[in-house]
Write a structure and sequence with these properties.
The protein contains twelve helices and two strands, in the order αααααααααββααα. The protein has helices at about 30, 65-75, 90-95, 95-100, 105-110, 125, 165-175, 180-195, 225-235, 260-275, 285-300, 305-320, and strands at about 240-245, 255-260.
Length: about 325
């Protein structure tokens, strides 16, 4: 333990440094200079003249009024305040019941001698009615447009939902799987593109297409007509329905039932998709199934598809079963 150091016994003179004591600082709230407030006894607030607003009662001008005043200063054309909206006095003149309930200030303004009721129009749009031109009557030029403007009124098929041909929309819905409409639309586009770029088909005279169809060399020019002609040519006219109990003893009879246009097309498309799915694959990729469907459509037009045999079998069975239409239920 080090020895203690005694102040009076030490031989070395001790130097004592006395530091100046720091003055105690007053709090911040006391050091701040007190601000004198103006009271009513010392200096009263200025009084406004009679009928004039006070210093804190002036309202800011409207945006249109401010723009109009700035336009006068700068010399530019500003908004026309007098022609905006419908004056209140004109609205009250047309409603006698409301005239009795309005304040007296407004009742004095709707007098006939009032200069505010000299306008001959009620809205801002009516003053510019002559400047409004009709799209049909005006001879608008198509300068700058790649295509001509559509004729008015628009046709019913110009709606967004009906912008595709009915046969294209129906085949697209039958191509769709798991609700993936975009995938089905891409396949439908590939099918139409394949029909458009393929060589003209050779029609088989033994399996003719619908009467009135264009020449085979013209079909690739219109792929939608190509698709429609192939589907309608193999679409069955009838279907066979098994009617239970018609022959007695629970025996069912086959009854031919006619089909509507949409039903006929649906049956033909299902046959085409079933035949295309059974064809061997030529490789992987998105265009694999679409190419097989397009080739099956070309085979139908050329009379090489097995869908023709399905249609013929249904028609033969319907012709043989037409005798059952006169059988009464037992």
């Amino acid at each position: 333990m080090p020895p203690r150091w005694h102040l009076f016994r030490s031989r070395i003179p001790a130097r004592i440094v006395v530091r100046a004591s720091q003055q105690a600082r007053s709090p911040l709230s006391l050091r701040l200079a007190a601000q004198r407030c103006i009271t009513s006894n010392e200096k009263p607030l200025p009084k406004a003249d009679e009928g004039a607003p006070g210093p804190n009662q002036e309202q800011l001008p409207h945006v249109s009024e401010e723009a109009a005043s700035m336009s006068k200063i700068t010399g530019e054309g500003g908004p026309e305040i007098e022609e905006q909206g419908t004056p209140v006095d004109e609205v009250l003149k047309r409603d006698e019941t409301s005239q009795k309930k309005v304040p007296k200030v407004l009742q004095e303004q709707i007098q006939p001698s009032s200069p505010n009721s000299t306008r001959s129009f009620s809205t801002w749009a009516r003053s510019r009615q002559e400047a409004i031109i009709s799209f049909e009557d005006s001879g608008l030029q198509t300068t700058g447009h790649k295509f001509e403007l559509p004729a008015l009124p628009l046709a019913p098929n110009m709606h967004l939902k009906y912008r595709y041909a009915p046969i294209v929309k129906q085949v697209t819905n039958l191509l769709m799987r798991d609700g993936k409409l975009s995938v089905a639309q891409r396949k439908m586009a590939m099918i139409l593109n394949h029909l458009r770029t393929a060589s003209p088909p050779t029609v088989n005279p033994e399996r003719p297409l619908l009467p009135g169809s264009p020449p085979a060399s013209h079909l690739p020019l219109n792929p939608i007509l190509y698709l429609t002609l192939a589907i309608d040519s193999v679409a069955p006219l009838l279907r066979i329905r098994a009617q239970k109990g018609m022959a007695g003893g629970g025996v069912a009879l086959q009854m031919p039932v006619p089909l509507a246009l949409r039903q006929r097309r649906r049956q033909a498309v299902m046959w085409i998709l079933d035949t295309a799915s059974k064809k061997p694959s030529r490789g992987s990729g998105r265009a694999g199934f679409a190419q097989k469907v397009a080739e099956e459509i070309i085979a139908i037009v050329e009379g090489r598809s097995g869908v023709w045999d399905r249609r013929g079998g249904i028609h033969k069975l319907a012709v043989s079963a037409r005798a059952n239409l006169n059988v009464r239920r037992r």
